[in-house]
Amino acid sequence: MQAYLVRRLFESALILLGITLVTFILLYLVPADPARQIAGRSATAETVQNIRDQLGLNDPFFIQYWRYLTALLQGDMGRSYLQRAEVSELIASRLPASLLLMLAAIVTELIFGLTIGIVAALRRNRPADHGLMIFSFVSISAPQFVIGILLLYVFAVKLGWFPIGGYGTFSHVVLPAITLGFLGAGWYSRMMRSSMIDVLGQDFVRTAQAKGLAKGRIILRHVIPNAILPIIAMIGIDIGLFMSGIVVVESVFGWPGIGQLAWQAIQRVDIPVIMGVTMVSATAIVLGNLLADFVAPMIDPRIKTK
Amino acid sequence: MTETVLTVRDLSVQVATPSGAKTVLDGLSFELRAGETLCLAGESGSGKSMTALAIMGLLPKPMCRITRGSVCLGDTQLVGLPDAAYRKIRTARVAMIFQEPMTSLNPLMTVQQQLTETLLEHDACTRAEAPARALQLLRDVQLTEPERRLKQYPHELSGGMRQRVMIAIALACDPEVLIADEPTTALDVTVQAEILDLIRALQRDHGTSVLMITHDMGVVAEMADHVIILRHGQEVESAPVRDIFSTPRSEYAKELLGAVPRLGTAPPRPAKPQGVPVLEVDDLSVRFDVRGGVLNRVQARVHAVEGVSFGINAGETLALVGESGCGKSTIGKALMGLVPWQGSVQVMGRQTRGMGPALMKPVRRDVQMVFQDPGASLDSRMTVGDQVAEPLLIHGLASGSALKDRVEHLFRRVGLSPDMMARYPHEFSGGQRQRVNIARALSLSPKLIIADESVSALDVSVQAQVLELLQEIQDEDGLAFLFISHDMAVVEQVADRIMVMRLGQVVEEGARDAILRDPRHQYTRRLLSAVPVPDPSRQRPERIETESIGSPIWPKGREPDRLKLEEISFQHRVAV
């Protein structure tokens, strides 16, 4: 187990290193000139050139990359070009809000997705199943900004049950979490349904019936734990999906997280901030997958941590 | 007359199919008496498993339903019993064990959890007593190290051990009737012998009645007091076991018993002129790495095949026998270049060591394989004609009308009509599919056919026909066969020579009769004594005690000791 842990952490570090290189290359190739952005439209070519020199943008690619990497390893993500602040501070002030939103969304999508999937599988090919699958289809297809705005209109504007936007109390988090988790709930319900149907046809379920166990016990003790296994690996991958969703959802609900920070930075080519946010979300995805890989053997004794 | 425990009257079951309801069990009646063993025997589709599920109330809903008849357990009528009442009967009064021990246990629960769950459901004991009862049950089924087994998960147990756990669960509440649906079909022959012994012993101690479902007439002869032979859902014959075997009345029973291969009854193999060597294998080893640790380095190796040497001449059949995991199938794969191997393999005098896929291509023409599962080895979305033609196209041997003629010829050759060429695999029976596979293997006119358990999945009557076909092909074309099988009786019918393997090494080899009539190695004797004999009047031989067989996995840097073969008579060699 320890050897496995060490190896997986080592692999994860390598993956993150790869991500720094790829994002750095992409941003290096972007035609927009950050120096021009900082200097403003009316600045002279000389001013722009000075800014370029100051930021080290004229140095060869590998020197720039090396400078970035060594600073990053010391915890220094650089300074924002446009806001007078360290990137690490900007992210640190925004990250808790985003993590809270993501956690709430995961809980939401699991509760909805798994319940819908279980019910649909048990009512397979009956009206309830068809209805739930149409719902899951809609939730997968609907764009998040549409869902967000719809929820805002109905539950915040018309009914007034929840605040329109902002951050602070439990009721603030409900609508953004549902919006963010809506897509995942659709996916999970479909996966859980097919996984349940698969497990229901397994020999050991027949054994459980032959034992004379009650139906509820068979479902809870024998079917659901086996059906949920393939879902666990998905939760790790999901964090990646959230990162794209969070940009949209945070804008719609005015949620002060890193999604909004990323959005502003992209519009204004604030490269250090974009790099910072990318690294943080990449780390989150890698950690999410790592966590899923460690949780799986705890539930499934067949997976050996070698 | 002892009392009747289970009475089945006029039981009929229908299955809904897209083309309407199909009767799969038609008016079956029987009585099961206390302490008796009743065998339902028949080939696939005879309705024997349906009977078991109908008694347990576990027919798959809503496709299957009981249309007629009654099932009485003592005074309780089971047909139409509400689910809540049925639950109290399952395992408590009628218990069932299944064919597939590998998949019949929940992989996420320990043995103890799966045992105690049953006990508690039926209030057989209190929660505090449950662990002790579970331990006692494992002792009853003679599982080794029962204390440790309780804490283990199913994947840590072998097939035989899992079947013992299944039996322990089934007997947890001391049921009146135990239904065993092909309980040993998926197990090795020595393990099968142990499990059958165990069922007999438990039956004797507890007075349980056993309803045994099997296709294996050897198992019937060993276990049954009374036999019912089923075909297409109908009873063909019902008689005490001795009468069925000595004086079968119905035509079908005679046919069925006639098709059963009996060890020790095959006619002598005809003497053949020595053919040219087709395959020469020298010091073949196949090892798989087991990796682990921080740097994922090789920590151990599975020595699947270790230093095996043999040769096959044209027109000759060499049988490779042994229990699962002995490396016999791996040898077949190695010869086809499907797994990495070391040593020397010469096909028609050409050394294949170090050949890449391109160089192997002409060699593959000479060596073709027929696999165990006739359905799974065909592509279900391609017509059988195209599948037989495909090798010819790949090797560029025929095209256009010549190709069509060749495929037609192959179909006739294996006893299929050429109009079947445009059909898909699902339209064929298992035996026909295996014929298609054989046609596919023959399409390249190979010199050697590797038959890996090629008839194991077939019913006995079909098995006999396929074996006959293979023999015909060999006689006509002088093909060499490498026949990989676990079934000694089948091997006796086809083999000229036999090689017995254990843990990747050969323990004994020689002419068929030398091995079967005069086995010298302890392991060969054990294998042979475990084969169930389809003759109820024969005294069961004293079983040779099982020793632990060991493991082919060795830590890095250590290797298994090579067995040395000593020639004890002409071409009969035994490990010392």
From TrEMBL, chain A:
Signal peptide: none annotated. The chain crosses the membrane at residues 12-30, 99-122, 134-155, 167-188, 227-253, 273-296. It comes from the Bacteria. Pfam families: BPD_transp_1, BPD_transp_1_N. It is a multi-pass membrane protein. Residues 95-296 form the ABC transmembrane type-1 domain. It is found in: Cell membrane. Keywords: Cell membrane, Membrane, Transmembrane, Transmembrane helix, Transport. GO terms for cellular component: plasma membrane. InterPro entries: BPD_transp_1_N (IPR045621), MetI-like (IPR000515), MetI-like_sf (IPR035906). GO terms for biological process: transmembrane transport. Coiled coil: none annotated. Its main location: membrane. Belongs to the binding-protein-dependent transport system permease family. This is Peptide/nickel transport system permease protein. It comes from Roseivivax halotolerans. The lineage of its organism: Bacteria, Pseudomonadati, Pseudomonadota, Alphaproteobacteria, Rhodobacterales.
Automatic annotation (TrEMBL), chain B:
Pfam families: ABC_tran, oligo_HPY. Its main location: membrane. It comes from the Bacteria. GO terms for cellular component: plasma membrane. It is a peripheral membrane protein. CDD domains: ABC_NikE_OppD_transporters. The keyword Amino-acid biosynthesis does not apply. Belongs to the ABC transporter superfamily. This is Peptide/nickel transport system ATP-binding protein. It comes from Roseivivax halotolerans.
